[in-house]
Automatic annotation (TrEMBL):
This is Cas12f1-like TNB domain-containing protein. Keywords: DNA-binding. InterPro entries: Cas12f1-like_TNB. Signal peptide: none annotated. One of its GO terms (molecular function) is DNA binding. It comes from the Bacteria. NCBIfam families: guided_TnpB, IS200/IS605 family accessory protein TnpB-like domain.
Amino acid sequence: MKGGETVTTYKRSNIIKNIVRVQKLHQRLANIHLEYVKSVVNTVVKTKPMYITIEDLNVKGIMKNRHLSKAVAEQCFYTFKKWLVTKCEQHGIELRQVNRFYPSSKLCSCCGKRKKDLQLKDRTFNCECGTILDRDYNASLNLLQAKEYTLLT
Ligand SMILES: [Zn+2]
C-alpha cells in the first residue's frame, strides 16, 4: 500500500479547496465593490443633474491608503467611471471630465485665488477672502464651475 500517495493526494485536494475558497472570497469582494459603485452612481443620477463633472484622477499619485491596494482602487475608479458613463447616457446627463492637472483642491471656490501650500492633511480649505469650507466640498464646487473639460457623454 502506498500511504505516501494518499497523503499527497489528500493534501493536494485540501490546497485546491483552499484556492477555490480564496477565489470565491475575491469574487464576493468584487461583487460588493460593484454593488457599492452602482448604488453611489444611481444615487447621484436620481438627483437629475444637468451635468456631472469628474476628475481624471491620477490613481498612482493618490494611493496613500493602505487599506485599499492600488489594483483594487484602479479597478474601482475604472468601474465607477464606466458605470457613470452608462447611466449618464441612459438619462441624458452631460458628463464632463477635467484633466488631472486642474487644481480643484487648491482653488478657492469663492474668489478663485490659488492656495499654494495646501497639503493632503489639510481637511479644511481656508482662504484670505474669509471662505472656510470642507476641502472636498470646495473641490467639488470648483469642478461644478470648471470651464475647461472634455465631454464623455
Ligand atoms: Zn477666497
